[in-house]
Amino acid sequence: MQNGGEYLLELDHITRRFLSVTALKDVCLKLKRDEVLAICGENGAGKSTLMKILSGSDSFGNYEGTIRINSQPMRFRSTKDAENAGIEMIYQEISLHLDLTVAENLFMGALPATKWKTVDWRRMIKDAYEYLQNVGLHVDPRQKVKTLSTSQQQLLSIARAIAKKPKILVLDEPTSALTQTEAENLLRVIKDLKARHVSCLYISHKMDEIFQIADRVTVLRDGEHIADYAACDVTPKKLVEDMVGRKIEVLYPKQQAHIGEEILRVEDFCVPHPYMKDRNIVDGVSFGLRRGEILGIAGLVGAGRSELLNAIFKAQEDGVSGKVWLEGKRIDGLSLRGIKESGIGYLTEDRKRNGFIAGAAIRENIVLASLSKIVRGGLIDHKAERQYATEYFRKLSVKAPDIETPMFHLSGGNQQKVVLAKWMMTDLKVMFFDEPTRGIDVGAKTEIYRLISDMANQGIGIILVSSEMPELISMCDRFLVLSHGKFRAEFTKDNVSQEKIMKAATLVEEN
């Protein structure tokens, strides 16, 4: 019930400065009761800064403007103040205690107690099942969180927020680690929360989700409020143009590359399951990749997509078996260094963990995989290092003051460009991309797609793993669907569809 159209939450004329930088400039945002309001904007638009103010992590006194809930001014000096006012945040970066159980994480800070003031474990497990069911997470509340997949941990974070019975739920890219099926489940949960009078702020770069879930959309750009729309009155194209400040003619700039002879061949590849003894997460798969081809590997989270790429790249790891040929030569016996030098690159799913060195400069990160090109007599030739780094810095249009900028200062899209530059410097023949646009804004995504397409045009064979179906279908020439450790289907550009991929991905393993 809208209650006369009154606003539950109002952020009035919010301005936030960091020394000489104005991160937010006179931003106004209003959330109605029983509403889902989507907030769109590129990385660096000010979304995270605004949410830090709303959550109390950027406390009252650091910013100009007013926060009102039910028309009453609020002064949040801590995250606890915001929680007490009924605001719960679900961040893109998962924050859980991995060595505690699912139930302990779910009720952290509010463990149910018996009349003797001890933990009521029976009630906690019972209540945990209920909240886990609400978000479609079917796991044992007594198992350790470290045994859960990334997507399961994200669903647990959402269940934990819901357990606190918030009035306002803020979700920051909540589906970035989820498959399409899991994301659809989450959208159903949000619709259910809305029916139970929980209002939501939904931050996302995914246009399809925004138009499924949002009542209204607010666009931010460069720290300023650009526009408000009823979701039914705006198009995805218009939103993207408002976000980036220019017209976007083609979101997926895939060019038709010449597809040549086979360059990579994988035969009977097996990878042991990380948690289940005597079981393979990848079980006897075989496939080929041709020059200039973009091969999409689809499947649900946990199907073994990332494990397959990682194992091919590090074929000497314990328990991994199978054969790999590159240009007709066996490479599965090579060291990691040998794999790199043979011409294979790997842009991993988690760029922050193993894609770059956050405290190092752009210059240092670009040359990381090609030190042999800049070492002279055992010492780094700093002139050559700067020349190479500058060349790729410009070639990939990295948005930063210069090559000495530390990586942690860059947006997600520009960090991804630097990681890609690192591999492009290695004389690539084959490139693995694992969720290359996860957590990246729409404008940067288009640039990453263009770079992938350019690499294919140069004759580089590409394997692309992505949980975003429109991305996968638009960018790939051929598709393999992985389920229960095996490839269950193969499609070409001409006969593929989201429905066909999902049907193959959800096949039940035959006994």
What does this structure look like?
This protein has helices at 47-55, 79-84, 102-106, 121-134, 150-163, 180-195, 207-213, 236-244, 305-313, 336-342, 351-354, 362-366, 371-374, 382-395, 412-424, 442-457, 469-475, 498-505, and strands at 7-18, 21-32, 36-40, 64-69, 72-74, 87-90, 168-172, 199-203, 216-221, 224-230, 262-272, 280-290, 294-298, 321-326, 329-330, 344-347, 375-376, 379-380, 430-434, 461-465, 478-483, 486-492. The chain is an alpha/beta fold. Strand 7, helix 6 and strand 8 form a beta-alpha-beta unit. The longest helix has 16 residues, at 180-195. Residues 1-5 have low confidence and may be disordered.
From the structure above, extract its key features.
511 residues; alpha/beta; six-stranded mixed β-sheet; 22 strands; 33% helix
Q: Strand share of the residues? A: 25-35%
Q: What is the number of E strands? A: 22
Helix content: 25-40%
Q: Tally the helices: what do you get?
A: 18
Question: Rg, please?
Answer: 24 Å
Shape: globular
Mean pLDDT: 88
Short characterization:
This protein has 511 residues and is α/β, with parallel strands linked by helices. It contains 18 helices and 22 strands.
List the helices and strands and how they pair.
Layout lengths: L6 E12 L2 E12 L3 E5 L6 H9 L8 E6 L2 E3 L4 H6 L2 E4 L11 H5 L14 H14 L15 H14 L4 E5 L7 H16 L3 E5 L3 H7 L2 E6 L2 E7 L5 H9 L17 E11 L7 E11 L3 E5 L6 H9 L7 E6 L2 E2 L5 H7 L1 E4 L3 H4 L7 H5 L4 H4 E2 L2 E2 L1 H14 L16 H13 L5 E5 L7 H16 L3 E5 L3 H7 L2 E6 L2 E7 L5 H8 L6
Parallel strand pairs: 3-8, 3-9, 6-7, 7-8, 13-20, 13-21, 16-19, 19-20
Antiparallel strand pairs: 1-2, 1-4, 4-5, 9-10, 11-12, 11-14, 14-15, 17-18, 21-22
